[in-house]
Amino acid sequence: MAASKTADQKLFSVILATYDCGRKVEDTLKSILSQNRELFELIVIDGASTDDTLDSIKKYDNGLTLVSEKDVSVYEAFNKAIDLAKGRYIYFIGAGDCLRPGVLEQVKELLPQEVPAFVYGNIFLKKQNIYQAQNYRTSDFIFNNICHQAVFYHRDIFDIIGKFNLRYKVFADWVLNLQCFTEPKIKKQYIPCLIADFEEGGLSSQRNNDAAFKKDFPSLIKKHLGFASYLKSKAYMINPNLYCFGYNGGYALKKHLFSYIAPYFRRFRSLKKKTVANPK
């Protein structure tokens, strides 16, 4: 899918996937179209919405490319858009999510010279009212993923890795990001920049609806991160009370483990104090 670089090639292809999302898509479109128009093209892939989603999108017809047809998942929509995209970096966003004002100008100044590059920043999780701001290590993918709303993928990545694997209904982006982080040909670059507000509650909240990912995840970890990481992931997968899928799974896991350990730790400190106070 490599595209030749031309003088009028946009820096970014912003890809928006929609399906029956109603008027909330307008906030997303406004956040995108308020960016510097010289920097990006906007491609909207709609899954043949039956509500007023298309009416909302068509209000902004002059600023975007729209395709509306049935698809099997949001990742099929993303894959269709990758084939249409002409920008040097590809960015994926969902209806209800919003780019921060002027963020594409900020990202432009922080892009690395070395390509292909996987460039990611920070996002704000609106429902949890917290920021996801983390410079990832490869091993972090055992516990959690990077929101695709935080990532700019150099277009050549999809020639090296391939597109989203449609076997995974909810976590195809987790698999793709893991592949990117373990591919030496791809530069990984964290930028301290707040990219978007992430609505949550959509696809990523359907954590129990991706049986293929749950089945394959330990093997994927073994393939990309090695046997020790495989054992760790396998242990957590066996006990769902200890393993928490999601974008902040690592934090949830540590919190859960601490709840088990804390009583023993407090008991140990109490015994230690008694021993010091009443030595034999």
What does this protein structure show overall?
It contains nine helices and nine strands. It has 280 residues and is of the alpha/beta class. Strands 1, 2, 3, 4, 5, 6, 7, 8 and 9 form a nine-stranded mixed β-sheet that branches. Helix 6 packs parallel to helix 7. It starts with 11 loop residues before the first strand and ends with a helix.
Radius of gyration, taken over Cα atoms and rounded to an integer in Å: 21 Å
- Tell me the span between the first and last alpha carbons: 77 Å
Task: Give the mean pLDDT.
Answer: 85
What structural category arises from helix and sheet content? Answer: alpha/beta
Total DSSP helices = 9
Query: What is the CATH architecture term?
Result: Alpha-Beta Complex
CATH class: Alpha Beta
Number of domains: 1
| Mass-distribution shape | globular
How would you spell out the order of helices and strands?
Answer: EHEHEHEEHEEEHHEHHH
Q: Unreliable runs, pLDDT <50, ≥5 residues?
A: 240-257
User: Which range best describes the helical content: under 10%, 10-25%, 25-40%, 40-55%, 55-70% or over 70%?
Assistant: 25-40%
The CATH superfamily appears as Spore Coat Polysaccharide Biosynthesis Protein SpsA, Chain A
The total count of strands amounts to 9
CATH topology: Spore Coat Polysaccharide Biosynthesis Protein SpsA, Chain A
Seen as an oligomer or otherwise, the chain set is: single chain
Please indicate the percent range of residues in DSSP E strands (runs of 2 or more).
15-25%
- Largest sheet geometry: 9 strands, mixed
